[in-house]
Amino acid sequence: MIQAPPATSAPVSDAIGRYRWTICSLVFFATTVNYLDRAVISLLKPYLETEFKWTDADYANIEIAFKLAYSLGMLGVGRVIDKLGTKMGYALSTFLWSLAAIGHAFVSSTFGFSVARAFLGVTEAGNFPAAIKTTAEWFPQKERALATGIFNSGSNVGAIIAPLTVPLIAETIGWKWAFVITGALGFVWLILWFVYYEVPARHARLTKAEFDYIHSDVDDMAAASITTEPKVSWFKLLTFRQTWAFVLGKFLTDPIWWFYLFWLPDFLNKQYGLKGTDIAFPVAMVYILSSVGSVGGGWIPLNFIKKGWEPFKARKTSMLLIALCVFPIVFAQYLGQINMWLAVLVIGIAAAAHQAWSANIFTTVSDMFPKRAVASVTGIGGMAGGLGGILLSALVQKRMFVYYESIGQKETAYFIMFLICGGAYLLAWVLMHFLAPRMKQIELDSVPSAR
Protein backbone atom coordinates (compact mmCIF):
# COMPACT_ATOMS: atom_id res chain seq x y z
CA MET A 1 0.00 0.00 0.00
CA ILE A 2 1.20 3.53 -0.79
CA GLN A 3 0.96 5.56 2.38
CA ALA A 4 0.43 9.29 2.53
CA PRO A 5 3.13 11.28 4.28
CA PRO A 6 2.43 11.89 7.94
CA ALA A 7 0.69 15.09 8.89
CA THR A 8 2.90 17.97 9.89
CA SER A 9 2.19 20.88 12.20
CA ALA A 10 1.79 23.27 9.24
CA PRO A 11 -1.72 24.72 9.01
CA VAL A 12 -3.87 23.54 6.10
CA SER A 13 -3.91 27.00 4.49
CA ASP A 14 -0.11 26.95 4.26
CA ALA A 15 0.05 23.32 3.22
CA ILE A 16 -2.29 23.47 0.25
CA GLY A 17 -0.34 24.45 -2.86
CA ARG A 18 3.14 24.99 -1.47
CA TYR A 19 4.88 22.02 -3.03
CA ARG A 20 2.57 21.59 -6.02
CA TRP A 21 3.54 24.97 -7.41
CA THR A 22 7.22 24.41 -6.65
CA ILE A 23 7.04 21.30 -8.83
CA CYS A 24 5.14 23.25 -11.49
CA SER A 25 7.93 25.85 -11.49
CA LEU A 26 10.54 23.15 -12.07
CA VAL A 27 8.59 21.75 -15.02
CA PHE A 28 8.18 25.30 -16.37
CA PHE A 29 11.97 25.78 -16.19
CA ALA A 30 12.61 22.51 -18.02
CA THR A 31 10.14 23.41 -20.77
CA THR A 32 11.77 26.83 -21.13
CA VAL A 33 15.18 25.23 -21.65
CA ASN A 34 13.67 22.63 -24.00
CA TYR A 35 12.27 25.27 -26.34
CA LEU A 36 15.23 27.58 -26.04
CA ASP A 37 17.49 24.79 -27.28
CA ARG A 38 15.31 23.92 -30.26
CA ALA A 39 14.69 27.58 -31.25
CA VAL A 40 18.37 28.53 -31.49
CA ILE A 41 18.87 27.24 -35.04
CA SER A 42 16.07 29.34 -36.55
CA LEU A 43 17.77 32.51 -35.30
CA LEU A 44 21.19 31.37 -36.48
CA LYS A 45 19.85 30.46 -39.94
CA PRO A 46 21.35 33.56 -41.66
CA TYR A 47 24.80 32.85 -40.15
CA LEU A 48 24.65 29.15 -41.00
CA GLU A 49 23.36 29.85 -44.53
CA THR A 50 26.44 31.99 -45.11
CA GLU A 51 28.91 29.53 -43.62
CA PHE A 52 27.46 26.29 -45.03
CA LYS A 53 25.77 27.65 -48.20
CA TRP A 54 22.33 26.39 -47.19
CA THR A 55 19.23 26.74 -49.35
CA ASP A 56 15.66 26.64 -48.00
CA ALA A 57 15.59 22.98 -49.04
CA ASP A 58 18.70 22.26 -46.93
CA TYR A 59 17.15 23.98 -43.94
CA ALA A 60 13.88 22.09 -44.44
CA ASN A 61 15.80 18.79 -44.54
CA ILE A 62 17.53 19.63 -41.26
CA GLU A 63 14.16 20.57 -39.77
CA ILE A 64 12.71 17.25 -40.99
CA ALA A 65 15.58 15.35 -39.35
CA PHE A 66 14.67 16.94 -36.02
CA LYS A 67 10.95 16.25 -36.41
CA LEU A 68 11.44 12.65 -37.53
CA ALA A 69 13.70 11.89 -34.58
CA TYR A 70 11.31 13.73 -32.25
CA SER A 71 8.39 11.67 -33.54
CA LEU A 72 10.19 8.36 -33.14
CA GLY A 73 11.42 9.45 -29.74
CA MET A 74 7.88 10.30 -28.67
CA LEU A 75 6.75 6.80 -29.55
CA GLY A 76 9.15 5.20 -27.10
CA VAL A 77 9.96 7.83 -24.51
CA GLY A 78 6.54 7.74 -22.88
CA ARG A 79 7.03 4.05 -22.15
CA VAL A 80 10.49 4.74 -20.73
CA ILE A 81 9.17 7.47 -18.45
CA ASP A 82 6.26 5.30 -17.30
CA LYS A 83 8.84 2.63 -16.45
CA LEU A 84 11.57 4.78 -14.87
CA GLY A 85 9.20 7.24 -13.20
CA THR A 86 9.13 10.99 -13.55
CA LYS A 87 12.19 11.75 -11.43
CA MET A 88 14.74 9.64 -13.30
CA GLY A 89 12.99 9.71 -16.67
CA TYR A 90 12.83 13.51 -16.79
CA ALA A 91 16.42 13.84 -15.58
CA LEU A 92 17.78 11.40 -18.19
CA SER A 93 15.98 13.16 -21.03
CA THR A 94 17.20 16.62 -19.97
CA PHE A 95 20.78 15.44 -19.55
CA LEU A 96 20.85 13.94 -23.05
CA TRP A 97 19.17 16.83 -24.85
CA SER A 98 21.54 19.30 -23.18
CA LEU A 99 24.49 17.31 -24.53
CA ALA A 100 22.87 17.30 -27.96
CA ALA A 101 22.31 21.07 -27.90
CA ILE A 102 25.94 21.76 -27.02
CA GLY A 103 27.03 19.27 -29.67
CA HIS A 104 25.80 21.58 -32.45
CA ALA A 105 28.80 23.82 -31.77
CA PHE A 106 31.17 21.06 -32.90
CA VAL A 107 29.45 20.33 -36.22
CA SER A 108 31.30 21.23 -39.42
CA SER A 109 28.92 20.20 -42.24
CA THR A 110 25.28 20.30 -43.31
CA PHE A 111 25.01 16.54 -42.78
CA GLY A 112 26.50 16.98 -39.33
CA PHE A 113 23.73 19.44 -38.47
CA SER A 114 21.14 16.89 -39.56
CA VAL A 115 22.69 14.33 -37.19
CA ALA A 116 22.89 16.85 -34.33
CA ARG A 117 19.29 17.90 -34.86
CA ALA A 118 18.17 14.27 -34.92
CA PHE A 119 19.92 13.60 -31.61
CA LEU A 120 18.35 16.73 -30.15
CA GLY A 121 14.92 15.68 -31.42
CA VAL A 122 14.93 12.18 -29.97
CA THR A 123 16.14 13.37 -26.57
CA GLU A 124 13.88 16.45 -26.36
CA ALA A 125 10.90 14.17 -26.92
CA GLY A 126 11.01 13.30 -23.22
CA ASN A 127 9.95 16.72 -21.96
CA PHE A 128 6.21 16.70 -22.52
CA PRO A 129 5.42 13.08 -21.57
CA ALA A 130 7.40 13.64 -18.34
CA ALA A 131 5.80 17.05 -17.75
CA ILE A 132 2.25 15.80 -18.27
CA LYS A 133 2.87 12.77 -16.05
CA THR A 134 4.35 15.02 -13.35
CA THR A 135 1.29 17.27 -13.53
CA ALA A 136 -1.04 14.27 -13.27
CA GLU A 137 0.88 13.06 -10.21
CA TRP A 138 0.92 16.42 -8.41
CA PHE A 139 -2.41 18.10 -9.30
CA PRO A 140 -6.08 17.17 -8.96
CA GLN A 141 -8.09 17.14 -12.17
CA LYS A 142 -9.65 20.58 -11.73
CA GLU A 143 -6.22 22.27 -11.56
CA ARG A 144 -4.38 20.35 -14.28
CA ALA A 145 -5.24 22.63 -17.21
CA LEU A 146 -3.98 25.66 -15.27
CA ALA A 147 -0.81 23.85 -14.18
CA THR A 148 -0.29 22.62 -17.74
CA GLY A 149 -0.83 26.13 -19.08
CA ILE A 150 1.75 27.51 -16.66
CA PHE A 151 4.48 24.97 -17.42
CA ASN A 152 3.63 25.04 -21.13
CA SER A 153 4.21 28.81 -21.11
CA GLY A 154 7.85 27.86 -20.64
CA SER A 155 7.90 27.05 -24.35
CA ASN A 156 7.03 30.68 -25.00
CA VAL A 157 9.55 32.00 -22.51
CA GLY A 158 12.24 29.89 -24.17
CA ALA A 159 11.18 31.28 -27.53
CA ILE A 160 11.26 34.83 -26.07
CA ILE A 161 14.72 34.45 -24.54
CA ALA A 162 16.11 33.01 -27.78
CA PRO A 163 15.70 36.08 -30.06
CA LEU A 164 16.79 38.42 -27.27
CA THR A 165 20.04 36.55 -26.63
CA VAL A 166 21.04 34.27 -29.52
CA PRO A 167 21.67 36.95 -32.19
CA LEU A 168 23.58 39.02 -29.63
CA ILE A 169 25.77 36.05 -28.69
CA ALA A 170 26.35 35.24 -32.36
CA GLU A 171 27.29 38.84 -33.18
CA THR A 172 29.70 39.20 -30.24
CA ILE A 173 31.41 35.84 -29.68
CA GLY A 174 30.19 33.64 -32.54
CA TRP A 175 27.31 31.30 -33.39
CA LYS A 176 28.96 28.27 -31.79
CA TRP A 177 28.79 29.86 -28.35
CA ALA A 178 25.04 30.35 -28.76
CA PHE A 179 24.64 26.56 -28.81
CA VAL A 180 27.04 26.02 -25.90
CA ILE A 181 25.58 28.63 -23.55
CA THR A 182 21.93 27.72 -24.12
CA GLY A 183 22.64 23.99 -23.95
CA ALA A 184 24.44 24.33 -20.61
CA LEU A 185 21.27 25.63 -18.91
CA GLY A 186 19.92 22.10 -18.82
CA PHE A 187 22.61 21.09 -16.33
CA VAL A 188 21.53 23.92 -14.01
CA TRP A 189 17.99 22.52 -14.09
CA LEU A 190 19.26 19.02 -13.26
CA ILE A 191 20.76 20.26 -10.00
CA LEU A 192 17.48 21.89 -8.94
CA TRP A 193 15.47 18.83 -10.01
CA PHE A 194 17.42 16.44 -7.81
CA VAL A 195 17.36 18.87 -4.89
CA TYR A 196 13.61 19.57 -4.89
CA TYR A 197 11.73 16.82 -6.74
CA GLU A 198 10.12 13.64 -5.47
CA VAL A 199 6.78 11.95 -6.17
CA PRO A 200 4.07 12.89 -3.64
CA ALA A 201 4.04 9.52 -1.88
CA ARG A 202 7.77 9.77 -1.10
CA HIS A 203 8.11 13.52 -0.61
CA ALA A 204 9.55 13.97 2.89
CA ARG A 205 8.16 17.47 3.48
CA LEU A 206 4.72 17.12 1.90
CA THR A 207 1.92 17.56 4.42
CA LYS A 208 -0.92 15.06 4.66
CA ALA A 209 -3.35 17.89 3.88
CA GLU A 210 -1.72 18.56 0.52
CA PHE A 211 -1.30 14.86 -0.23
CA ASP A 212 -5.03 14.33 0.35
CA TYR A 213 -5.87 17.35 -1.80
CA ILE A 214 -3.70 16.08 -4.68
CA HIS A 215 -5.55 12.75 -4.54
CA SER A 216 -8.99 14.24 -3.96
CA ASP A 217 -10.41 12.93 -7.25
CA VAL A 218 -12.41 9.72 -6.84
CA ASP A 219 -10.26 7.82 -9.35
CA ASP A 220 -7.09 9.02 -7.64
CA MET A 221 -8.22 7.83 -4.22
CA ALA A 222 -8.66 4.34 -5.63
CA ALA A 223 -5.37 4.42 -7.52
CA ALA A 224 -3.42 5.65 -4.51
CA SER A 225 -4.02 2.35 -2.74
CA ILE A 226 -2.46 0.27 -5.52
CA THR A 227 1.16 -0.65 -5.04
CA THR A 228 1.91 -2.09 -8.48
CA GLU A 229 -0.17 -1.17 -11.48
CA PRO A 230 0.05 -3.28 -14.66
CA LYS A 231 1.56 -1.63 -17.71
CA VAL A 232 -0.67 -0.94 -20.70
CA SER A 233 0.37 -1.96 -24.21
CA TRP A 234 0.37 0.48 -27.10
CA PHE A 235 -1.92 -1.90 -28.98
CA LYS A 236 -4.57 -1.69 -26.27
CA LEU A 237 -4.28 2.08 -26.03
CA LEU A 238 -4.81 2.35 -29.78
CA THR A 239 -8.13 0.49 -29.49
CA PHE A 240 -9.68 3.44 -27.70
CA ARG A 241 -11.33 6.29 -29.60
CA GLN A 242 -10.03 8.65 -26.90
CA THR A 243 -6.45 7.87 -27.92
CA TRP A 244 -7.24 8.67 -31.53
CA ALA A 245 -8.95 11.91 -30.55
CA PHE A 246 -5.72 13.07 -28.92
CA VAL A 247 -3.57 11.69 -31.76
CA LEU A 248 -5.51 13.49 -34.51
CA GLY A 249 -5.67 16.70 -32.50
CA LYS A 250 -1.89 16.70 -32.15
CA PHE A 251 -1.32 15.60 -35.76
CA LEU A 252 -3.24 18.58 -37.12
CA THR A 253 -2.12 21.34 -34.74
CA ASP A 254 1.46 20.58 -33.66
CA PRO A 255 2.82 21.32 -37.16
CA ILE A 256 1.46 24.86 -36.89
CA TRP A 257 3.59 25.55 -33.83
CA TRP A 258 6.62 24.03 -35.60
CA PHE A 259 5.95 26.47 -38.44
CA TYR A 260 6.00 29.47 -36.09
CA LEU A 261 9.11 28.23 -34.31
CA PHE A 262 11.25 27.42 -37.35
CA TRP A 263 9.99 29.86 -40.00
CA LEU A 264 8.84 33.04 -38.22
CA PRO A 265 12.30 34.67 -38.34
CA ASP A 266 12.52 33.81 -42.04
CA PHE A 267 9.05 35.30 -42.69
CA LEU A 268 10.04 38.58 -41.03
CA ASN A 269 13.31 38.59 -42.96
CA LYS A 270 11.81 37.87 -46.38
CA GLN A 271 8.64 39.94 -45.94
CA TYR A 272 10.06 42.98 -44.12
CA GLY A 273 13.83 42.72 -44.52
CA LEU A 274 14.56 42.22 -40.81
CA LYS A 275 17.80 40.46 -39.90
CA GLY A 276 20.28 40.04 -37.06
CA THR A 277 19.33 41.78 -33.83
CA ASP A 278 16.55 43.72 -35.63
CA ILE A 279 14.45 40.59 -35.61
CA ALA A 280 14.67 40.10 -31.84
CA PHE A 281 11.83 42.28 -30.61
CA PRO A 282 9.13 41.27 -33.17
CA VAL A 283 9.82 37.55 -32.56
CA ALA A 284 9.89 38.11 -28.80
CA MET A 285 6.54 39.93 -28.98
CA VAL A 286 4.88 36.95 -30.67
CA TYR A 287 6.01 34.66 -27.88
CA ILE A 288 5.16 37.14 -25.13
CA LEU A 289 1.59 37.00 -26.41
CA SER A 290 1.90 33.21 -26.53
CA SER A 291 2.75 33.14 -22.83
CA VAL A 292 -0.46 34.98 -22.04
CA GLY A 293 -2.37 32.46 -24.14
CA SER A 294 -0.77 29.50 -22.45
CA VAL A 295 -1.78 30.56 -18.93
CA GLY A 296 -5.12 31.93 -20.13
CA GLY A 297 -5.85 28.64 -21.84
CA GLY A 298 -5.63 26.92 -18.49
CA TRP A 299 -7.71 29.59 -16.77
CA ILE A 300 -10.68 29.46 -19.18
CA PRO A 301 -11.87 25.91 -18.38
CA LEU A 302 -11.07 26.39 -14.68
CA ASN A 303 -13.35 29.44 -14.68
CA PHE A 304 -16.13 27.45 -16.36
CA ILE A 305 -15.72 24.63 -13.84
CA LYS A 306 -15.96 27.09 -10.95
CA LYS A 307 -19.29 28.21 -12.44
CA GLY A 308 -20.58 24.66 -12.14
CA TRP A 309 -19.84 23.27 -15.61
CA GLU A 310 -18.80 19.66 -15.97
CA PRO A 311 -15.05 19.39 -16.75
CA PHE A 312 -15.56 17.81 -20.20
CA LYS A 313 -18.00 20.57 -21.25
CA ALA A 314 -15.66 23.27 -19.94
CA ARG A 315 -12.70 21.77 -21.81
CA LYS A 316 -14.56 21.28 -25.10
CA THR A 317 -16.09 24.75 -25.08
CA SER A 318 -12.75 26.34 -24.26
CA MET A 319 -11.04 24.50 -27.11
CA LEU A 320 -13.70 25.64 -29.60
CA LEU A 321 -13.31 29.28 -28.54
CA ILE A 322 -9.54 28.94 -28.81
CA ALA A 323 -9.76 27.40 -32.29
CA LEU A 324 -11.81 30.38 -33.48
CA CYS A 325 -9.13 32.77 -32.20
CA VAL A 326 -6.56 31.31 -34.62
CA PHE A 327 -8.54 32.02 -37.79
CA PRO A 328 -7.65 35.75 -38.17
CA ILE A 329 -4.07 34.73 -39.04
CA VAL A 330 -5.23 34.32 -42.64
CA PHE A 331 -5.28 38.16 -42.81
CA ALA A 332 -1.73 38.56 -41.44
CA GLN A 333 -0.15 39.67 -44.70
CA TYR A 334 -2.98 42.03 -45.59
CA LEU A 335 -2.67 43.71 -42.19
CA GLY A 336 1.11 43.70 -42.58
CA GLN A 337 0.75 45.89 -45.67
CA ILE A 338 -0.76 48.53 -43.42
CA ASN A 339 1.84 48.12 -40.69
CA MET A 340 4.28 45.32 -39.90
CA TRP A 341 3.24 45.35 -36.24
CA LEU A 342 -0.34 44.47 -37.17
CA ALA A 343 0.99 41.30 -38.79
CA VAL A 344 3.09 40.59 -35.70
CA LEU A 345 0.01 41.13 -33.52
CA VAL A 346 -2.27 38.75 -35.43
CA ILE A 347 0.44 36.08 -35.61
CA GLY A 348 1.01 36.57 -31.89
CA ILE A 349 -2.70 36.07 -31.18
CA ALA A 350 -2.69 32.88 -33.25
CA ALA A 351 0.41 31.64 -31.43
CA ALA A 352 -1.24 32.49 -28.10
CA ALA A 353 -4.30 30.53 -29.16
CA HIS A 354 -2.11 27.58 -30.05
CA GLN A 355 -0.60 27.57 -26.58
CA ALA A 356 -4.04 27.83 -25.00
CA TRP A 357 -5.11 24.90 -27.18
CA SER A 358 -1.97 22.99 -26.19
CA ALA A 359 -2.65 23.46 -22.46
CA ASN A 360 -6.10 21.95 -22.93
CA ILE A 361 -5.32 19.16 -25.37
CA PHE A 362 -2.55 17.88 -23.10
CA THR A 363 -4.95 17.94 -20.18
CA THR A 364 -7.48 15.81 -22.09
CA VAL A 365 -5.04 12.90 -21.68
CA SER A 366 -5.17 12.99 -17.88
CA ASP A 367 -8.93 13.61 -18.15
CA MET A 368 -9.49 10.48 -20.24
CA PHE A 369 -6.77 8.06 -19.04
CA PRO A 370 -5.53 6.84 -15.64
CA LYS A 371 -2.11 8.05 -14.53
CA ARG A 372 -0.31 4.81 -15.43
CA ALA A 373 -1.07 5.43 -19.13
CA VAL A 374 -0.65 9.22 -19.30
CA ALA A 375 2.99 9.34 -20.45
CA SER A 376 2.42 6.58 -23.02
CA VAL A 377 -0.63 8.24 -24.57
CA THR A 378 1.14 11.62 -24.52
CA GLY A 379 4.07 9.99 -26.32
CA ILE A 380 1.82 8.49 -28.99
CA GLY A 381 0.18 11.87 -29.57
CA GLY A 382 3.52 13.62 -29.61
CA MET A 383 4.74 11.20 -32.26
CA ALA A 384 1.64 11.99 -34.33
CA GLY A 385 2.32 15.72 -33.97
CA GLY A 386 5.90 15.22 -35.12
CA LEU A 387 4.78 13.17 -38.13
CA GLY A 388 2.31 15.92 -39.01
CA GLY A 389 5.17 18.39 -38.87
CA ILE A 390 7.28 16.20 -41.14
CA LEU A 391 4.50 15.94 -43.71
CA LEU A 392 3.94 19.69 -43.62
CA SER A 393 7.65 20.35 -44.12
CA ALA A 394 8.17 17.73 -46.81
CA LEU A 395 4.98 18.15 -48.84
CA VAL A 396 4.23 21.83 -48.33
CA GLN A 397 7.11 23.92 -47.01
CA LYS A 398 10.05 22.23 -48.74
CA ARG A 399 8.48 22.08 -52.19
CA MET A 400 6.21 25.12 -52.02
CA PHE A 401 8.69 27.51 -50.42
CA VAL A 402 11.47 26.56 -52.84
CA TYR A 403 9.13 26.89 -55.85
CA TYR A 404 7.66 30.26 -54.93
CA GLU A 405 11.03 31.69 -53.95
CA SER A 406 12.42 30.58 -57.34
CA ILE A 407 9.79 32.71 -59.08
CA GLY A 408 10.15 35.61 -56.65
CA GLN A 409 6.76 35.11 -54.93
CA LYS A 410 7.58 33.66 -51.53
CA GLU A 411 4.82 35.78 -49.99
CA THR A 412 2.33 33.50 -51.77
CA ALA A 413 3.81 30.48 -50.01
CA TYR A 414 3.36 32.20 -46.67
CA PHE A 415 -0.24 33.12 -47.53
CA ILE A 416 -1.02 29.45 -48.21
CA MET A 417 0.63 28.50 -44.93
CA PHE A 418 -1.48 31.04 -43.04
CA LEU A 419 -4.63 29.55 -44.59
CA ILE A 420 -3.55 26.13 -43.32
CA CYS A 421 -2.89 27.60 -39.86
CA GLY A 422 -6.33 29.21 -39.73
CA GLY A 423 -8.27 26.04 -40.47
CA ALA A 424 -6.26 23.35 -38.69
CA TYR A 425 -7.66 23.87 -35.18
CA LEU A 426 -11.31 23.94 -36.23
CA LEU A 427 -10.85 20.69 -38.14
CA ALA A 428 -9.05 19.16 -35.16
CA TRP A 429 -11.86 20.21 -32.78
CA VAL A 430 -14.54 18.64 -35.01
CA LEU A 431 -12.65 15.35 -35.25
CA MET A 432 -11.92 15.25 -31.51
CA HIS A 433 -15.56 15.96 -30.71
CA PHE A 434 -16.68 13.16 -33.02
CA LEU A 435 -14.24 10.63 -31.51
CA ALA A 436 -14.66 11.64 -27.86
CA PRO A 437 -17.94 13.51 -27.40
CA ARG A 438 -17.60 13.10 -23.62
CA MET A 439 -14.13 13.17 -22.04
CA LYS A 440 -14.89 10.42 -19.54
CA GLN A 441 -11.95 8.52 -18.07
CA ILE A 442 -11.73 5.05 -19.56
CA GLU A 443 -11.38 1.76 -17.70
CA LEU A 444 -8.22 0.19 -19.09
CA ASP A 445 -9.13 -3.22 -17.74
CA SER A 446 -12.50 -3.19 -19.42
CA VAL A 447 -13.32 -4.51 -22.86
CA PRO A 448 -12.84 -1.71 -25.42
CA SER A 449 -16.31 -2.15 -26.91
CA ALA A 450 -17.83 -1.42 -23.51
CA ARG A 451 -16.42 2.08 -23.20
Cα(first) to Cα(last) distance is 28 Å
List low-pLDDT spans: 1-16, 220-228, 447-451
Name the helicity range: over 70%
Profile the largest sheet.
Answer: none
| E-strand count | 0
> Which percent range describes the beta-strand content?
under 5%
The radius of gyration over CA amounts to: 21 Å
Helix-strand string = HHHHHHHHHHHHHHHHHH
What is the overall pLDDT average?
A: 83
Coarse shape? globular
Class from helix and strand fractions: mainly alpha
Q: Please, how many helices?
A: 18
Question: What's the layout of helices and strands?
Answer:
Blueprint: H1 12-15, H2 18-52, H3 56-84, H4 86-103, H5 110-124, H6 127-138, H7 141-173, H8 175-196, H9 208-214, H10 218-223, H11 234-237, H12 241-272, H13 280-306, H14 311-326, H15 332-338, H16 340-368, H17 371-406, H18 410-435
What does this protein structure show overall?
Residues 23-440 form the Major facilitator superfamily (MFS) profile domain. This protein is mostly helical and 451 residues long. It has 18 helices and no strands. Helix 2 packs antiparallel against helix 8 (175-196). The radius of gyration is 21 Å and the shape is globular.
